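Supplementary Note 3. Input sequence used for the single-chain structure prediction.
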Amino acid sequence: LIVANGLARRLRHAWMVAMGLLLAGVTLTLTKGAGLAEALPLVIVLAVLGLSRPAFYRATPLSASRLTPVMALAILATLGAVIWLGLFSHEHVVYRNELWWQVALQGGTPRFLRAAAGVSVLAFLFLAWNWLRPLHAPPEQAPPLSEIRKIIAAADTARPGAALALSGDKRFHFSPSQRSFIMFGVRGSNWIAMGEPVGLAEEIPSLVWSFREAADAAGAGIVFYGVGRDFLPLAVELGLSVQKIGETAIVPLSDFSLQGSGRSRMRQVYNRAGRDGLSFEVLAPEDVPAHMDRLHDISDAWLDAHGGAEKGFSLGRFDPGYIANFPVAVARLNGEIVAFATLWPGAGKQEIAIDLMRFSAEAPRAVMDYLFISTMLWAKGQGYQRFDLGMAPLAGLEAHRLAPAMTRIGAFLFEHANAIYGFEGLRAYKDKFRPAWEPLYLAAPNARALPGALADVGILTSGGLTRIFHK
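The predicted structure, written as discrete structure tokens, is reproduced below.
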């Protein structure tokens, strides 16, 4: 049963074990005195399996293959059915303790009892080991960050989130030219790509296919998290199922200003901040280390005040080596930095995004509004076309009765779970800047895998299962 699971997953080691078991079965069937009729089915299966050798191409060891819940239940159900059949076959035998250690040439009942107990114990131990053991992961590819920076700088397709490649918690799958990559993490039986591929547009289709082939060879599925609508045609070609997971707030900068009645509130916030002594500056990456101690103090105080912990994978975290890669927008109060936001520039100045946003207790109440407004005005002056304020999880999901179940559940959580996360409040806050809301998606191997893939992303982002509910 266990080897059959490996055969279903095209594992080379499972093929080898199955061939050995079949040869042993043929030999033992013949040597115990049974006729050729009993051995013939095994010989046929052995021949068919031997001719099918090229189909078993995955190098993942059989011991590293994790059983799915469905397969585990199937194994338990089969064992249960066999044990029930044995009990039914021997129900005429009066049970005695001596049956456990009685050994006789025709002692079918004792053999059945010992076999049933032994197989049950072995099945339990194997399933426990299979679920609790460390997961098999692909070999690490850890290129120097300088190489990753060069790829991002030369990319003609790179959303601002490509900056997460510099966070130090990703694995990489490269194109043959080494000019494009997919960054991903491993969780469960999936390789989870963070965002869209980065690099040269003409290499992306072949890159995603080679990514799928590499995962398939390792017995894993692929997931793409946080991709936009432009990636959906590729996701469909890959055979993935797609689920909307929220919306990201995009402010078009070409017509952004503080003029007009529609911008009156932003104008008031901006002017009042100036009167309160706030000033704005964007620190170039080479200037950030000189201010790192102050930024670190603000970050630590912010985390303590909010009872939070640093995240990862889909979010940036405060790490001096990581922060120093990017420009940092800062708000000063009478010359002292009281708030900051790290910025992710996209390829070709098409887009720029906010990453970390933190402020000190001394900062005025509207300091983040001021920082956002000032950063957008600065980005417009630098020639950027779009400003990404970040994602509002579960926003824009339909509660229609004909919508997919996962969509309806997400819409319900968005409306009723604000005490846990504040979904509506986050979207309302970003809506003050009058953005255009663009959908973001999760692409997984099939519809059944979508909830598990989303949970895996949450665990990767939180840094572990025990920290998933930390703020």
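Residues 313 and 460 are 6 Å apart (CA to CA). The chain has a mean pLDDT of 87.
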